Amino acid sequence: MCGSPLFVIYDLVGVREDLTNGEFPSDMNSMWRYSQLLPVKSPSCVISLGEGWTPLILSRRLGKHLGLQMLRIKDEAQNPTTSFKDRGLSAAISRHYELGAKEFALPSAGNAAVSASAYAAAAGLKAHIFMPDDTPEPFFHQCELYGAVTTRVKGTITEAGKVMSDQNGDWTDLSTTKEPYRVEGKKTLGFEICEQMGWSVPDAIICPTGGGTAIIGIWKAFDELEAIGLIGPERPRMYAAQSGGCAPIVRAIEKGSDDIEPWVNGETEALGLRVPNPFAGRLILNSIRHSGGSAVAVADQEIEPTRRTASKLEGIDFCPESAVGICGLWNLIESGKIDYDEDVVLLNTGSGARYTNL
Ligand SMILES: Cc1ncc(COP(=O)(O)O)c(C=O)c1O
């Protein structure tokens, strides 16, 4: 093992030649419409529950509230297990199933665990889930419903990962960016945003960021689309939004560092962003810097009120992580980094429904 993430590379000249009329088939309403640029060879190995091809909703009221003329919301709460994790786990579990995997394991803040449990169930395989013990109960219930074996670990996703590797089970490790295929699934977010905008890119994308699969994947998507001739060299500015309670990416961007220094005692109610030491730190920083974007931290106490205001304004079920994105967007507008007349895409990375201990 080289200790760094692996990247999937495609024969892009071949894909370009294969596309009918220079377009992907439009009759498939899931992320598998881009199967030429996904890592599964045999269609019978695709484990799909209908993930992806989520709507890019033109904001009616939240954008105006923030002072923007054009805000679009990519609503990932509409995925099968209600978060964008379904894209990565559908791609990864399909490919590892094709390669003969029988069991999977991953540490997770919640949504990836539910997603892995669902796709493992759909493949008829076993998932072992390691989650912080303060993860809200509905996440555990949902994983168990899909037949996963769950382990509660004191600490954050970092400690959950340690307990998992100490067990050294006979499983395929699906930890964020430690295998190459989850990023491939997340990449389809970038494909969809461009396709839904008529093969163009927005000015800026706001990404609530923890382990960084979305930001890395979306950034990779643009290079592939350019190589096959569907977009030109233009790129959106990528903005990572984090909670001030756990903001290792923001700190590295502000300091101009090449590597991410682990955040000590990371705490935030946006559980998916409580990632003190993202494994793919360099790739995340490179994507942000090359795009001309930045990273922004928001106060944890802003999260719940913002989530409520935004959900009420738009009729969309925003998760706490996306509320961090909304506060981050507000800060970027206030500080003049995003202009009122720019075309901005905000990711609603999932539903907020599982975040309370009922
Ligand atoms: C709802 C939600 N948003 C954002 C993230 C961060 O994801 P990424 O790994 O792409 O940074 C997570 C991760 O758990 C999440 O569950």
Q: Which SSEs are present, and which pair or pack?
A:
Elements: H1 12-18, E1 56-58, H2 62-66, E2 70-75, H3 85-98, E3 103-107, H4 111-123, E4 126-132, H5 137-145, E5 149-153, H6 157-167, E6 172-173, H7 181-196, E7 204-208, H8 213-227, E8 237-243, H9 248-255, H10 281-291, E9 294-298, H11 303-314, H12 320-334, E10 343-348
Parallel strand pairs: 2-10, 3-4, 3-6, 4-5, 7-8, 7-10, 8-9
Antiparallel strand pairs: 1-2
Helix pairs in contact: 3-4, 3-7, 4-5, 7-8, 8-10, 11-12
Bound molecules: pyridoxal-5'-phosphate.
Write up what this structure looks like.
This protein is α/β, with parallel strands linked by helices and 358 residues long. The chain folds into 2 domains: 194 residues, Rossmann fold; 89 residues, Rossmann fold. The strands form 2 sheets. The chain has a 6-stranded mixed β-sheet, sandwiched between helices. The N and C termini lie far apart (42 Å). The model has no long low-confidence stretch (mean pLDDT 96). The structure holds pyridoxal-5'-phosphate. The site of pyridoxal-5'-phosphate has 18 residues, from helix 4 and helix 8.
